[in-house]
Amino acid sequence: MTEPHLARHSSQDVWLMPVFIAKEGHEGDLQEALRVLQAASRNDPGCLDYTVFSDNQRPGTFVLIERWASREDLTAHNDEPHVKDFVTGAEPLLEVPFSVTPLTPLP
Questions:
Q1: Domain contains 81
Q2: Residue 22 is assigned to a structural domain of this protein
Q3: Each residue of 5-38: pLDDT tens digit?
Q4: 17 neighbors 63 (Cβ within 8 angstroms)
Q5: Residue 107 lies in a domain
Q6: What is the pLDDT of residue 9?
Q7: pTM confidence score
Q8: Domain for residue 104, yes or no?
Q9: How many domains does the chain have?
Q10: Is residue 89 helix, strand or coil?
């Protein structure tokens, strides 16, 4: 029997986990930039989840969990001005370039 929460997932869903580490002194600026990105991205077509988390064990580290209905929706999202503006604006706030890990939910 399939678990009810797994029925909500499609095999075409695309899950990603970007991680952002702020330069010392820029934590608040990065957090605000991520809040703006989160608010805009949640309105993009095909966005099923787009939630930024603050890492409670590593101050200044933020983890984004995002889920898209399809690879095409993700591609369109990445072409949006709010995403491009974030990437450009966040670069000087980051200790290291952000990483993006693709994820697959376990059945």
A1: yes
A2: yes
A3: 444 667 789 999 999 999 999 999 999 999 999 9
A4: yes
A5: no
A6: 63
A7: 0.88
A8: no
A9: 1
A10: helix
